[in-house]
Amino acid sequence: MTVFRGYGLLGALGTLAAAAWLLAIPGDPKNAWLLGYSRARLALLLPLIGIAAAFLAGSFLGRPSRGSARRFYDWAAKFLSRPRIQGALLALAILGAILSLYAIIAFLTLPGDARSPVIGRLLPLIAWGAWFSIQTVLFIGLRAGILFQEHTVLFAWRNLFGALIVFGAAWFARGFSLGQFVTIDEPTWMRRGSTFTIALRNADFSRTLQSGHPGVTLMWAKLAGLTVFTPPPADLDYGGLSANRLDFLLLKEGHSRIEVLSGARFFIALANAAAIALIFLFASRLIGFGPALAGALLLAMDPFHAALTRLLAMDGTLASFMGLSVVAFCSFLGSGRKLDLAVSGGAAGLAWLTKSPGFILIPTLAVTGVAWRAAGLGRAGLRARGLRETFSLAGAMLLWVAAATLVFSALFPAMWVAPLDTLEKIFATALGYASIGHQGLVFWNGRVIPDGQITDFFYYPATFLWRATPVVLAGLLAAAAGVLRPAWLGNINRRAVSGLLGSAILIFLMMNLGTKRFDRYFLPVYPLLDLAAGAGLAWMAAALFRRSRFAGVGALFALFALQAGLLIGVHPYYLSYYNPLMGGPDRALEVMMIGWGEGLDQAGRYLSAKTEPQGLGVISWYNQGPFSYFYEGDSEHLSINTPPSPERLAEILEMDYIVIYIHQWQRNAPADLLAALSGREPEHTVWIDGLEYARVYRMDP
């Protein structure tokens, strides 16, 4: 059974699935103008069934033996072999794929009353038509053996085509439902972004240093969101303006806080999707087109990475830029291209701008470079050329640092006027967080840690097992086996895969030096491990392909369908994903501290639906942002790190509503309040992916 037979089966199944969906979907409210009429349904169903039959027939029968069918087939093959036609088909395929994905996601995620007639009626038809036409064109081209061969235009453009596919997958995992919920750190970066914007408008560049983290990329995203989506009044005088005053003026302009946040998140998601596409481009030079595409798609659809690369928060964006820097540097080590070195340095500069742990790239890449060159030279080469290679690598590292410093300084206005003070604050903050720790209650491995000091050496690997998908873990096992037994990896660059895995280990060792630990801090290794997993999956698919082409294609399709299914299953609350192999969310509740604000949005919306929410007395943990952005009345913050005094506890219990969050009962904090509520039934509960995230208690008057 050939690969074309497997491809034809895929096309037939996709077409029949669309036909089944067309039959099953109710006429109201989706496309009632069309689906309510049996003739219209039949008019669409017959072509779909015909296309499916054509795929099946083409898969098993191959090139027609005679007659008009053979003449059409030969004409189509000759027509598709023209370079201009291939270029046009590539452009149409990209456009059709974008329209298809946009239409399908908009169609499935937007509520019926929010769909415009174009989205609700026209775009789904465009999506179907694009899917069928692309499938048909690619099938004929593949069957005739004229696409993606070395002499064709599509082969020359395949990296661009692959990058666009990766970008599209990354964007559609991150760019939708950006206003669904808020995490606890985002309001802080909203305020800092407003101050950053005011400082730039007033040319007060020293005030652009808002934090020692320093989070500059997040503040640029806030500025971009304000400029494009939620602009302040055109005649606004920024002199003497405060962040709170700017936010108030935005509200007067009709821009809600969640709308302003969504605008900033849009640019965060866009930057991360672009970074993942660039990771693919450099990885394709490093480990080959197929393994790089597999790894980049795993990263694009990684639930935990997707969760944090669509928020106005540092860790996800840091991970993307660090991953790009490592992959581009390894590509430089393999090819010697100065462009790769410059891109690696530039990405490192962006990582430094995002969060200070990005500076661990300096020792990580230095050690990786030494190990790479030593492995390439061997013992005899080290004796003969070791010193020269050392100076060469040192020179490359100096150029890398120069590129990183240039990007860091150019995009950080505080560096223009007070570079030493700026760097001093950044490094002091980093050392403080590494040595002091969280200084608050944390929950880990079934126990509450009062001082927040997690000292388990394998904490980060354990969190990776919880947050990774079974597909990634399977690919990593195959990649590790291939590194240990080089013949198993075939033509995949063993040194490159070893470099990715080795860099991840180095990052783990340096991240382990700090005592403030959360699962999201380990995110910088995810791009590297996902790429290595892609190489492992490519090896497994190639091994299966040699035995049965259909089995190889089918296995890859099934694995990526599983990866996509795990992602879609937790949309838009990607943070609620936990590896089903480890026991899923139910078992994670006993091990991991769960919740960063997701779910409190539903509690806020529930209370806002009350007749007069403005007159209610409401108190909530994680009030500022996760709850308050969605509650229309006034609410108070419930502190848990300090037990409330008896007087304060009495005041809390006199509130109309008390909102309790999941990691409060995980940590039993505050214990007195939870004990007082233990005999009450909550009026409303919020469940996400099978776990109870929030409880809304109605207190008796």
What keywords describe this structure?
701 residues, mainly alpha, five-stranded mixed sheet, two-stranded antiparallel ribbon, globular, disordered N terminus
Estimate the mean pLDDT confidence: 81
Hey, roughly how much beta strand do the residues contain?
under 5%
Q: Biggest sheet, open or closed, and with what strands and sense?
A: 5 strands, mixed
How many helices? 30
Rg is 27 Å
Q: Are there runs of 5+ residues with pLDDT below 50, and where?
A: 1-11, 25-48, 54-62, 107-124, 142-155
Helix content: 55-70%
Describe the global form.
globular
DSSP E strands, number: 7
Strand order of the largest sheet: 4-3-5-7-6
Distance from N terminus to C terminus (CA atoms, Å) equals 73 Å
Q: Would you tell me the structural class of the helices and strands? A: mainly alpha
